Amino acid sequence: MYDHLSNLFAPTTRVRSCKSRRPHSANIRLERLEPRAMLAFDPSAQAQEMLEHVNRMRMDPQAELNVLFSSLTPLTARDPDANAAIKYFNDPTSVGIQSEWSSLRPAAPLAWNESLVTAATGHSQLMVQFDQQSHQLPGEPGLSDRFSNAGYIGWSAGGENVYAYATNAFNAHSAFAIDWAVSGRGHRTNLMNPAFRDFGVGLVADTSTSTRVGPVVTTQNFGSRSGYGNPFLLGVVYRDGNSNGRYDAGEGVGGANVQVVGPTGTFTTTTMSAGGYQVKVPGGTYTVTASGGGLATPQVRTNVIVVSANAKVDFTGMSTAPVPTTPAVPTSLVATAGNGRATVSWQVPASTGGSAITDYTIQFSSNGGRTWTTFTRPASTGTSAIVTGLTNGLNYVFRVAARNAVGTGGFSANSNSVKPAPTVTVPSVPTAVTATAGNGRVMLRWNAPASNGGNAITRYAVQYSTNGDGTWVTGVIPSSTRTSATVAGLTNGVGYVFRVAAVNAAGAGPYSTASARVIPAAGALTAIDLAPHANQRLQSVGFGAVNRLPEGNVTLGGIGFSIPVSGNNIWTGQAATGTNPRVLDLAVNAAGVTKVYTLINTLWGERDSGSRASITFYGSAGAVYNVDLDGNNHIRDILWNTWTNTINGTSTTNVFTAGTGQGIGTNNQVRLDMQTFTLPAAFATQTLTRIQIKDWGGANYQRLIVTGIAVR
User: Fold this and answer.
1) What element of type H or E holds 437?
2) Beta carbons within 8 Å of 573's beta carbon, 6+ residues apart
3) C-beta of residue 418 within 8 angstroms of C-beta of residue 372
4) Cβ of 563: how many Cβ atoms within 10 Å?
5) Cα gap 347→413, rounded to integer Å
6) Measured between alpha carbons, how far is 421 from 335 in angstroms, rounded to an integer?
7) pLDDT tens for residues 67-110?
8) Which one-letter DSSP state was computed for residue 26?
9) What pTM, to 2 d.p., does this model score?
10) How many CA atoms lie within 13 A of 446 on its CB side?
11) In 3-state terms, what secondary structure has residue 431?
């Protein structure tokens, strides 16, 4: 249960004290059991007018603005006392009331309930007795007990509005609907609450000059019951004497006969003295006729549709009320794909069918509209929805139909086709960027980002800066997913820092933290990046020494090598007998190179000498230098105690051994050998452009293992 209580000063012609005079609203929600039938009673003309104000606003809240206000700019209420209150409190404003009103949605009309009339009248009498406005007077039970004590049994929702200072029914309605100076607009909320179906009002006159309340002390009670049964068909028969297009007190036609004819039978009733009528009918389509009671001629309404909510048909000698139908179709349907979902939006139908739209039905199809599935969601009058539970990769179309009290209208045209897919963002930041300077170049290595953004990384972007002040130049590197690259064309003697970003289908992610500053130099040692050519993993040929083989930027034999650390990280030659060699072509682009250092071993090397591999160096001006890699002079097996265990030449030295005492069997000890090649003098004035290694390895000959290369 919850209460909404507020104090709203409403200046009237009867203000005689400074005590705040405001309508109060309360709203409660409880559960009961037993149903109760509606009893006959005869409301006054003022009470009938109050019900007509409430139902008119519920069924068409947007049109009610013109009833309540003669002008929205400046904001001017038609009721003079209401207009004075708005000016006094400066609330609501013109912009505010229009903004608030735009969110109101139509609701079904309310029917009279005698028990709620009894409860409301009793409360208004107590406000007169105690001369105060309140939801609970001294000694009075709470709202829940007052409802039950009055005979309103089996109710599930209830609410109350009170205003002890009204001048007439329209003034009270203006106070509740406009709701000046009330936070949350609780009175208006009660008026428009779609959960309510029953209504009762207590209007008690107090014209005494010795009291503060009056002249019309007003209590409105709202409720909804379980076991409600069939809905009410209700309305009013009246003569529009002032031609304002609505019922006013004194215009009702009492004693008129109302006949309701439909497929389930004929139902009859007679209008009450104030002109109102109501009769319970099953859902269906009816013809309703009002006659007698002073009406000049019978008036007939055909195709009156009653579903599950109360419905309203009025009769007047001045006009004929339209008969509600189902809504027209929604338009401008647009769908936008998400991850396993789609957002669907549309425009409201051109016609509501004369009855408020209460919900939209959304359907989707994954086979081009051959079959449809209804999306289950709470009822909503909003014009957009997120449809969940869709399968990524499938194409979907959508359609929407509007529903009102009469039923569901036709479906819209199909939306555009969309294909839900996982959300893709840019990758996160690469980490651990390291730079190794060479001659006019720098070799970079980094770690891949922790997240690829939901889509495969397609390449990396590299930038460098010489001043560290935020001026960055994009380096030219091959498009690759490798986590290493060489940036050439740099100026020797100048310091550089580098940063790296990962790129996927969504774009480039953020750049990494800059590397440490490095300075390329002439004659500097440059490690060649083998990662683009790696076709095997070093550990796979190391047998028992798998966890002891070097990787990364390492110094072996006093020379810095760069051995890739992930995936395949070495190049291996021919694995079987063949007439064509396996060729490793390395682009170098290093000027004035005089020395080249290589880490080359074999797998299953030959017992005797014999040239089965070669290395060739090419200069930019035609210099060429070839060396045949002999099994005894240059290369030997990576395994310590197997083939080709001796080196007779002086150009090869052992630089790494996983040796005895490391828990490795004798036949599984591993070594890496370094070859040193002194290039002819012609290369000193040329650019070393290319290094080419050939391997004619066969079943009984060496199979090359190239682990690292560096030039100086």
Assistant:
1) strand 431-437
2) 581, 582, 584, 613, 693, 695, 697, 702, 703, 704, 705
3) no
4) 22
5) 12
6) 14
7) 999 999 999 999 999 999 999 999 999 999 999 999 999 999 99
8) E
9) 0.46
10) 27
11) strand
